Amino acid sequence: MEDVLMLEKELGTINNSLKGKPVSELSDFPSMATGNSKNDMFELIKELYSFSKKAVTLLKSVNDGTAVSVPDVSAAVRRELKDILPGLLKEALGQLKSAPDSKPEADMTSEEPKERHTLTLKIRADTGAEESEKIISKESWTDVVKKDVTSKLSKVPLDKRPFVTKGGSVKLGFNNKENMASAQKALAEKYEVTPDSQEVKMIDPKLSMFDLKGDFTTPEELCQKILDKNCSIKGLVDAGDIFKVVFLEKNEKDWACLQVSVRIRQCIKRSGDYINAGLGKYRVKDRYHVVQCFDCQGFGHMSGSEYCKCKKHDAEPTCFHCAGTHKSKLCSQKKKNSAIKCVNCSHSRSKREQDKCKTHTAADRLCPFYVREQSQIMGRTDGCTKESKNGFLQRSLGMQKEHGIV
User: Fold this and answer.
1) Which pLDDT belongs to residue 290?
2) Pairing of strands 160-164, 280-286
3) Average pLDDT over residues 78-89
4) What is the rounded CA–CA span in Å between residue 343 and residue 382?
5) Alpha-carbon distance 306 to 312, whole Å?
6) What stretches of 102-235 adopt beta strand conformation (E)?
7) Rg (CA), the chain
8) Strands 255-260 and 206-209: what pairing?
9) Which of the four, 39, 214, 241, 378, has the lowest number of CB atoms within 10 Å?
């Protein structure tokens, strides 16, 4: 029985050595020529480990007397584990070192659609409806149109929940042209349907690099020292991948923002989200920067932009704290929790969000508008997976419930 326990311990050590370590640390065995990718070799190693566990289970059952005794089965299993298995693992690990890099679908590329497909729905002018009935209001959508659209699109999947616009139309989102075309055909008889396809411009991954402790003076110096100490990153940069220090902020936090390619992001992730530079090892984290206007409190633009509602309508700025018509820095009620009001949620299409508008400010990172904006940025970031985005949404929802925001 001691042999079995020892074998289990050895297999556990092998299994642990295969989890989360860079390929270069897995084995010092010589490389062997192979056409398999690293993914294929990892799958092979997992199969070998699974086989080993089964062999140990069989051996234990024989020694315990719980299985039918077969002559020399114990010796045969021991020989398999001690002689054949290590040889197979050595060969697999050696091939893993020499195998070409592969790009797992879920890890290396974004799972978000590269195009956005939308149908705009209106009541047809030739249906005989009154002029007032041609406008789709929230009430008519809920009572009549929604049921009709649901029945007509019973077999067509939508990418996003439909919503009613202020202009009296309905927007339907789809994840591909085929679904949009099927929906257009099903709805064209009764509705005026306008299709629209737009390419989603993907953005490079960005990282925050923390606790620099004043070791670097310029972005250029930091960039060079990172490349000097990280051969894998430098190799990808030499191959044409993007890597640059967007800015270096020297204050109490002393941190930097990096812009990288998807392959470099994965390379850093395999190193435990740490980067070597100079004499230190620094932690990095994915950065999804949400831009919010200081004047109208809207998202995706800054103060003075042509997209700012205040500039468009020549209106006074809106306070992010109390939703009053004054600059946020001039608010006289900043210290009063009773004055808190989110201007975005107060004008939301959701009755639930309207009711909760006095639980947070417009700048609160748990505000439903802020969370949705960050989720959209994650969706447009190359390499960000659905798992990452859904994990963020679940964590945010938990904190929103904890603080009474939803």
Assistant:
1) 93
2) unpaired
3) 59
4) 32
5) 7
6) 115-123, 160-164, 170-174, 191-199, 206-209
7) 29
8) antiparallel
9) 214
